[in-house]
Every structure is written in structure tokens, then in C-alpha cells.
Design brief:
The chain is an alpha/beta fold and 237 residues long. Helices cover 45% and strands 14% of the residues.
């Protein structure tokens, strides 16, 4: 346990130093007019560095299963949410993805600026229906630009063994966007839990499940996606 905490703290120190380098890019990109593609490329570089640190400092790597399920065209991606890991890793797994994220994400020093300018789909939950409308409009814009949209339908990070239950919002995107949905399941909570303070070595599995086509009733879609993800869970626990 002591060794796990030590490695986790060493990684945290590495993360601070690695992130500090990207502060140098903020004024450069700002003066250049904040070019979105270049900012997304820089963000991916930062994430690759984070994944490198996790692998070589903590001993935490990842493996993918079912990559043949990934669609060629932009789609809606739904993924369970257990830790900070998937929020970061998906920026590499799907290079131009637009993530539906909480406003609090923008408060992360330095990287919050990159995420805002990428841009990601940032929602303010307290806005109610306005937040849903903004999420829908920005998702349409991202898809029109050739970017897939990622949403964590549980709404927050959940403990590893908690049942997967979608919150309000994802059914609206499914009904209104009219694009296929790619369900994805991760077991990151085994190694980097919802609290986020301690990380331990191992291999996170990212499972891509059979896509769900558009056109079915939204409630049926939710039940089908939840069932697919729950059926995959026993092999990842």
C-alpha cells in the first residue's frame, strides 16, 4: 500500500511538471487566433504524456477490445464513467472527439483553457433546459464538423460495481441527432477510483460494443444500451 501511494504521488508530481510546459503554448496559440486543430493536437500530446506517466511511473496501462466496432463516420459515443482516466484517454482514442463535460472541467489550470478552445461541449447543469438545448446545438455542430460526440450518460463518476443507469440528456441526443451510437465500457475504477487520489498498476480494458442504429424510441435505446454495457461488465470486474 505504501508503494502504491508513493508511485501515485510521484505521478502527481510528474503531471504538474508536464502540464506546466503547456502554459507556454497558451500565449502562442492566443496570438495565432486559437486555431482549433492545433489546440486539439497539443491537447492530445498532453494526454499522451499523461498516459506515458501512468504507464511508466504507476504501472497503469490500457488495452482495447473490439476496435472493429468503431464506426467510420462521426457518431455518438456513450461510455460508463468511473474515473478521470477515460475523460483524458478518449482524447487519444478518438482524436477529434467533442466531450460533453461539466463546467467544472474548465477550472483545471492550463488544460482548462485548451479544452475550452478545442472546443468541448461544456454544460452548466444548473441551467436546466437551456443546458440541454446548448448541448444539442453544440453536438450538432461537432458532428457537422466531422467530430464524434462523447457523453458519460451516468452524469458523474460511479463506483466500480454500481449498476449503469443513464441520466437525463442522452436520450435527447439519440432522438434528435439521428446518428449511430457506439457504447463503450471501461473498468478504470479498479485502478483509479472516483476519488482520484490513488492510482495503482494494472491494465484498464476499453471494450467497444456493437453500435446501436438510430431510429428506435429513445426509452428503448436507453434500455438497450444499459443492457449491453451491463452484459459486458462481468468480464471486466
Amino acid at each position: 500500500m505504501h508503494q502504491i501511494k508513493l508511485k501515485s504521488r510521484l505521478f502527481d508530481a510528474f503531471l504538474v511538471c508536464w502540464t506546466a510546459w503547456f502554459a507556454l503554448g497558451v500565449p502562442v496559440f492566443w496570438l495565432a487566433g486559437s486555431p482549433r486543430k492545433a489546440i486539439r493536437a497539443a491537447t492530445r500530446l498532453w494526454v499522451r504524456g499523461v498516459l506515458f506517466g501512468l504507464k511508466h511511473v504507476v504501472g497503469l496501462d490500457y488495452a482495447e477490445a473490439g476496435r472493429d466496432m468503431i464506426l467510420a463516420e462521426p457518431c455518438l459515443i456513450v461510455c460508463n464513467h468511473q474515473s478521470t482516466w477515460e475523460t483524458l484517454a478518449f482524447l487519444v482514442l478518438f482524436p477529434d472527439v467533442a466531450i460533453v463535460a461539466k463546467q467544472e472541467l474548465l477550472r483545471i489550470p492550463i488544460i482548462g483553457w485548451y479544452l475550452r478552445k478545442s472546443p468541448m461541449i461544456i454544460i452548466d447543469r444548473e441551467s436546466g433546459s437551456k443546458a440541454l438545448k446548448a448541448m444539442l446545438n453544440e453536438s450538432r455542430e461537432a458532428l457537422a464538423g466531422g467530430r464524434s460526440v462523447l457523453i458519460f450518460p451516468e452524469g458523474k463518476r460511479m463506483k466500480e460495481r454500481e449498476p449503469i443507469r443513464f441520466k437525463r440528456g442522452v436520450e435527447l441526443l439519440y432522438a434528435k441527432l439521428g446518428v449511430p451510437v457506439l457504447p463503450v465500457l471501461v473498468n478504470s475504477g479498479k485502478f483509479w477510483g472516483p476519488g482520484g487520489s490513488s492510482k495503482r498498476g494494472g491494465t484498464i480494458t476499453v471494450s467497444y460494443l456493437p453500435p446501436i442504429l438510430p431510429g428506435m424510441p429513445a426509452e428503448l435505446f436507453v434500455r438497450k444500451a444499459e443492457a449491453q454495457m451491463e452484459a459486458e461488465r462481468p468480464g471486466l470486474i
